[in-house]
Amino acid sequence: MSLWESSLAVRIPVADGLLGVKPMSHSNISIFVPHLGCPHRCSFCDQNAITGSNALPDGEYVKALLSKALDDGLDPASSEIAFFGGSFTAIPREYMLELLESCQPFLKQGFQGIRLSTRPDCVSYEILDILRDYGVRTVELGAQSMDDSVLLLNERGHTSLDVELASSRIKEYGIRLGLQMMVGLYGSTKELDILTAKRLIALNPDEARIYPVAVMRGTTLGRLYESGEYRTYPMDEALELLAKLLSMFSESGIPVIKLGLHSSVDVESRLLGGIYHPALRELCESLIYRRELESMIEKEGVREFTVPKRNLSSAIGHKKSNLSYFREKGIEISIKPSDSQTERLLPAQI
Questions:
Q1: How far apart are CA 238 and CA 179, in angstroms?
Q2: How far apart are CA 26 and CA 79, in angstroms?
Q3: In a 10 Å sphere around its CB, with 0-12 CB exposed, 13-18 middle and 19+ buried, how is residue 347 labelled?
Q4: What residues does each domain of the chain span?
Q5: pLDDT greater than 50 at residue 20
Q6: CA-to-CA distance for 42 and 153, rounded, in angstroms?
């Protein structure tokens, strides 16, 4: 496996497809900076398992990675350089500048810009001046919850006000804003998770990520889980909630670019419990379509439907689960692809 292949994360924002907007292919050259810079070890956090990385990259590593990506034929015009895994704006200043400086020759070769993730309480105007000068295009904030009691219980070390202030500053600088939330945290409820989504939507981010809690061995949540003090939602209830949250963001015009953790040996080897499935997003999208199909069957009595080709798998359901669901109810339905780019689901024209 090449250096680029081991670090390239490709995403296609399926949520755009759910909105009836043609999704665009986009790639991140992902560089992980696990834990360094984080002033807190949050209750759920095991960055090494989540990122599959223990080593810290330096400027030379970044240059080698990006050079290899270009040599392998990557189109920089549809790619961002992404620093994930830690609190980028809280790492030692000299190290942060080294990483940003190493990207500059590649921005001149056409990369869209730099993307990074950080904490809401580590976004000062001074930091934003630096980020703007070095070509940072997108900042993702790990908000996780907008309930201060949940943030405190999970040892986040920041408040919901910090999320609001940092979001406002990022948008003020013309930098794209991404917001990340977690579902099923210690002390949270479905109502509080929905309230978090509403408050994040009100901040009008350019994109969002939804991470249901996966409980990792060796974390605070892991110990609470093993003692029986902490349990998150059962999977069926979690899917209902996640489908609702996904619809809330999508209906507000905010693409959810990631739902759930990437499946990996590192995650699954340390996983104790929580809300985890390698096809979690597909399960949620299948459920959204199931509810729409049920409504149209009940209200209009139709049995044959068309959906845009890109959404056919979601409409049919994960492993054809929607077809099986209706068949068990004695209802045979037909779902066929269409060339429509605007309509999500329609009765088939007879």
A1: 20
A2: 6
A3: middle
A4: 3-278, 292-347
A5: no
A6: 9
pLDDT at 71 (0 to 100):
95
pLDDT digits (tens, 9 = 90+) for 296-311: 999 888 899 999 998 9
* DSSP of 32-87: E--STT-SS--TT--HHHHHT--SPP-HHHHHHHHHHHHHTT--GGGEEEEEESS-
CA distances from 283 to 10, 58, 120, 136, 259 (A): 20, 38, 30, 34, 11
CATH tag, 3-278: 3.20.20.70
Q: Which two tokens stand for residue 336?
A: 């066929």
Q: Each residue of 133-179: pLDDT tens digit?
A: 999 999 999 999 999 999 999 988 899 999 999 999 999 999 999 99
> Quick one: the chain helix, strand, coil %, rounded to 5?
45, 20, 35
Work out the angle at residue 189's Cα, subtended by the Cα atoms of residues 44 and 253, and round it to the nearest 5 degrees.
Answer: 90
Neighbouring C-beta atoms of residue 330, cutoff 10 Å = 6
The pLDDT of residue 340: 76
- Angstrom distance (rounded) from CA 340 to CA 179: 30
B/e letters for 274-292, b = 16+ CB within 10 Å, e = fewer, are bbbbeebbbbbbbbbbbeb
In the predicted structure, residue 235 carries a pLDDT above the cut 70: yes
As given in the structure block, the two tokens for residue 266 are 């590192």
